[in-house]
Amino acid sequence: MNQRQPHLLARLMKSASKIEPNELRSVLLSFLFVFTLMSAWYILRPVRDAMASDWTDTELSFLWNINFFVSIAVVAVYGFAVSHLKFKNLVPSVYAFFGLSFVVFYFAASGSDDRVLVDKVFYVWVSVFSLFHVSVFWSFMSDLFTKEQSNRLFAFIAAGSSAGALVGPLIPALFAENLGTDKLMLIASVALIVPIALVLYLERLKVVDLHNESVQADLRAAKIGGNPFAGFKMFVSNPYLLAIGAFILLYTAIGSFVYFEQKNLLEEFSRAERTEILARVDLVVNILTFAIGMFATSRIVTRFGMPATLAMVPVFIVAGLFILAFAPILIVVLALQVARRAGNYAITRPAREMLFTAVDRETRFKAKPVIDIVVYRGGDAISSIAFAGLTDGIGLGLAAMAAVGGVIAAVWAAVGVYLGRMFGRLEAAGSNARET
Q1: Measured between alpha carbons, how far is 418 from 412 in angstroms, rounded to an integer?
Q2: What's the rounded Cα separation, in Å, for the pair 160 and 38?
Q3: Residues 166 and 74 in one domain
Q4: What is the model's pLDDT at position 221?
Q5: 338 by DSSP, 3-state: which?
Q6: Contact, 160 vs 30, CB < 8 A?
């Protein structure tokens, strides 16, 4: 019985998802790998965001600006490590480093006389972690499987990310009050031990089961490569890329406005209560993202086209912010946050990634990191300064800030329509060039 069971499972998995018997262990462990990573991230995220309500808008803006510069520096260090370390050693080292760092934060938070400083460093560090945890995973996957296997297997493996995003928020949502937020750091650090063991075992299966000894990840995308400023030059000289950058900047501005409003309305709650509330928001967002992504995203793009798809979430946010201007209460902000994030993950982000299919491979590798990291984090920094200036500086209240955000969201929608039309023209031009 015990001998036949693996063969039965292998046959079932092959018929259901095109996984060959010799790939089964590697695929299931890869699923567990990304599931664990996403679970750890969604344990840490509400812990981080709950801290923000203890600080003024100006203090939080300062942290976001620090995060911008730290992110650029860490990405540069990672690019150097990619160039000088063996990849099989790099991946477990990254997760071991982050896992150990969260243990250090736990003991520092428990025994420090200056808890505020520890919390602020932790806030920035978790934001840095968010840049790497899944990105490094997919680089490892490209080092493990062939291109033919990736076409068949990656969709199943990616489902582990969605599963982790659903399970992870349950831990702080259910246990933050009883355990306290500091112990959640320890739980996340323990979760990051699992990928280290999985990397080492998957490296063995790469030879024993997959026979993919010759497969190596193409890590050129991890570095801008060649002239370090080539990506910046492409970005500033290409109207299409500038339009994508403007779309990202407006997205980050709206995200900052909603985040700051949420932070201010959560001030009256304890940190454990904030963590529970934010974890529940994460859970609802991830459920909606999964449902919309499974059943609606492709239909939206196909039926309505790129201009309407890119403008859809911004238009909804316009309505939500003007409702918030007349009813500045927590439940409206949380509903708006759910709609914004779920809409981004399920609709806007996939459509945004499609925009890069209209440019050549060199542009994707060199200019896309500039947009995804520098423009995105720079947008966070600039919008946080603007928000802090309008609130702590001028003294605008929640309702007035929501109205300002509504105007920005309207501009965001207009840019989405314009960008979608540019994409259509480039697609048509590319089709005509291929035909001739």
Answers
A1: 10
A2: 8
A3: yes
A4: 47
A5: helix
A6: yes
Confidence band for 270, pLDDT divided at 50, 70 and 90: very high
Cβ atoms of residues 131 and 71 within 8 Å: yes
Judge whether 382 and 245 are in contact, CB under 8 Å.
no
Q: Which of 309, 340, 39 is nearest to 194 (CA)?
A: 39
> Tell me: the pLDDT tens digits for 396-430?
998 999 999 999 999 999 999 999 999 999 888 86
Phi-psi sector, 107: left (phi>0), alpha (psi -120 to 50), beta? alpha
User: Are 190 and 251 contained in the same domain?
Assistant: no
Return d(Cα 272, Cα 375) in angstroms, integer: 33
Average pLDDT over residues 65-84: 80
Contact 216, 143 (CB under 8 A): yes
* 308 domain residue, yes or no: yes
Amino acid type, 71: S
The whole-angstrom separation of Cα 102 and Cα 260 is 25
Name the domain boundary from 172, 201, 223.
Answer: 223
Residue 129 burial (10 A CB sphere; 0-12, 13-18, 19+) = buried
Residues 238, 208 share a domain: no
In this structure, what are the phi and psi dihedrals at residue 329, rounded to the nearest 5 degrees? Answer: -125, 165
Dihedral through CA 48, CA 285, CA 418, CA 354, nearest 10? Answer: 90
- 309 shares its domain with 399: yes
Whether 57 and 112 map to the same domain: the answer is: yes
Of the three residues 161, 190, 223, the one that is the final residue of a domain is: 223
Residues in Cβ contact with 350 at an 8 Å cutoff, skipping those fewer than 6 apart: 293, 297, 301
Decide: 258 and 338 in contact? Cβ < 8 Å.
Answer: no
Same domain, 231 and 273: yes
Inside any domain, residue 340: yes
In the numeric block, the tokens 């709609």 are attached to: 339
CA distance 35 to 417: 35
The total domain count for the chain is: 2
pTM for the complete prediction?
0.84
Whether residue 312 is found in the same domain as residue 412: yes
370: nearest Cα among 262, 257, 263, 236: 236
Tokens of 434: 């291929």
Assess contact for 369 and 248: CB atoms under 8 A: no
Considering the domain architecture, whether residues 161 and 77 belong to the same structural domain is answered as: yes
Q: Work out the number of other CB atoms within 10 angstroms of the CB of residue 74.
A: 16
Residue with the two structure tokens 């063969």: 7
Has residue 331 been placed in a domain? yes
Residue 83 in this model has a pLDDT that exceeds 60? yes
> Is residue 9 a part of any domain in this protein?
no
CATH number at residue 259: 1.20.1250.20
